[in-house]
């Protein structure tokens, strides 16, 4: 199993739009091969900072997701409309 931590900093006043998009993606991921569960967290000390924790059966399943056209479309939209900087991902294998 692998857990992915995806860290995002968003533009001011984009919280509701970001949260809505993330929840839609998390909902779509529920039926993806290898996906176990995902949660969206908000930093209580920095309202523009978010973390998505996502559990996958293995790295290959997550890599297939981030290589998908669906993920690419959401990523491009985020870069243009929502994100204040480049996101960072952390991988935890267990």
Assigned CATH architecture: 2-Layer Sandwich
**Spans of at least 5 consecutive residues with low confidence:** none
Count structural domains. 1
Describe the largest sheet.
Answer: 4 strands, antiparallel
Order of helices and strands: EHEEHHE
Structural class: alpha+beta
How many helical elements? 3
* Helix content percent band: 25-40%
- CA-to-CA gap between the ends? 6 Å
Strand content: 25-35%
In what order do the strands lie side by side in the largest sheet? Answer: 2-3-1-4
Supply Rg. Answer: 13 Å
Could you tell me the mean pLDDT? 92
Indicate the CATH class: Alpha Beta
- The overall strand count is 4
**Looking at the structure, what is the overall shape?**
globular
| CATH domain fold name | Alpha-Beta Plaits
Task: Offer a concise description of the structure.
The chain has a single domain, classed as Alpha-Beta Plaits. The chain has helices at 15-29, 59-66, 69-81; strands at 2-9, 35-42, 49-56, 88-93.
């Amino acid at each position: 199993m692998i857990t992915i931590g995806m860290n995002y900093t968003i533009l001011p006043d984009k919280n509701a739009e970001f949260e809505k998009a993330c929840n839609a993606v998390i909902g779509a991921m529920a039926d993806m091969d290898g996906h176990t569960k995902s949660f969206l967290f908000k930093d209580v000390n920095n309202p523009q900072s978010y973390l998505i924790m996502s559990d996958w059966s293995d790295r290959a399943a997550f890599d297939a997701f981030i290589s998908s056209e669906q993920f690419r479309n959401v990523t491009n939209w985020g870069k243009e409309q929502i994100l204040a900087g480049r996101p960072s991902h952390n991988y935890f294998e267990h």
